TrEMBL record:
Protein family according to the UniProt entry: Belongs to the zinc-containing alcohol dehydrogenase family. Quinone oxidoreductase subfamily.
Gene3D superfamilies: Medium-chain alcohol dehydrogenases, catalytic domain, NAD(P)-binding Rossmann-like Domain
UniProt-listed NCBIfam families: adh_fam_1
Protein name (record): Zinc-type alcohol dehydrogenase-like protein
Keyword annotations from UniProtKB, A to Z: Metal-binding, NADP, Oxidoreductase, Zinc
Taxonomic lineage from the root: Bacteria, Pseudomonadati, Pseudomonadota, Gammaproteobacteria, Legionellales
């Protein structure tokens, strides 16, 4: 878990489902100043509505945008997608000895980018504990209980952006087209399973 010191993480591609919940959890569980990334006005507003303090455009020079926020470098980067395409820009904004977390599966990640700043890399997969029956497997249960409590208290809100109706071929194609367009935010839901 992130420390409670006033530090700055970047939530890269923060308007999708994982980013939408990540911003809320970081806001509820830490004292971090949360910086999300997005490129469209509706996505920027989405991330702000879910708890980010600031949003920068990942399609533009991130370093200059951070400098405008009086935050030239960040302590943490959490990259949720397209990590291999944007690793250099993300490493550039990390402080020396910063922490770089990712959840996607980059095809060509140049690990040498991380060495000059002695950055630590943290790869996360949701089911590692259960897949490998790790000694701390019960931690997954504890985390889910903590999240359920935050939801029950109204401190975490849904990341559902759109319900496209019953699951069928037509609606599945519509949902898939929206995701492929790059214009989706939050979670898209199909019902009737």
């Amino acid at each position: 878990m992130l420390s409670n010191r006033a530090k700055y993480p970047i939530n890269y591609w923060g308007c999708w489902g994982v980013g939408s919940i990540l911003v809320q959890l970081a806001r509820q569980l830490t004292n971090l100043t949360i910086i999300g990334t997005a490129s469209r006005p509706d996505s920027i507003q989405w991330i702000l509505n879910h708890g980010a303090h600031h949003v920068i455009d990942h399609g533009k020079d991130m370093k200059s945008q951070l400098q405008a926020l009086k935050c030239p470098e960040v302590d943490y980067v959490i990259s949720l997608t397209h990590t291999d395409e944007h690793a250099k820009a993300l490493v550039d904004v990390l402080k020396p000895q910063g922490k770089f977390a990712l959840i996607d599966d980059p095809q060509h990640l140049d690990i040498k980018l991380f060495k000059p700043k002695s950055l630590s890399i943290h790869w996360e997969m949701m089911y590692t504990r259960s897949m490998f029956k790790t000694p701390d497997m019960m931690r997954q249960h504890e985390i889910l209980e903590q999240i359920a409590k935050l939801v029950d208290e109204g401190k975490i809100k849904t990341t559902m952006a759109e319900c496209m109706g019953l699951i069928n071929a037509v609606n599945l194609k519509k949902a898939h087209a929206l995701i492929e367009s790059g214009l989706a935010r939050g979670k898209i839901v199909l019902s009737g399973f």
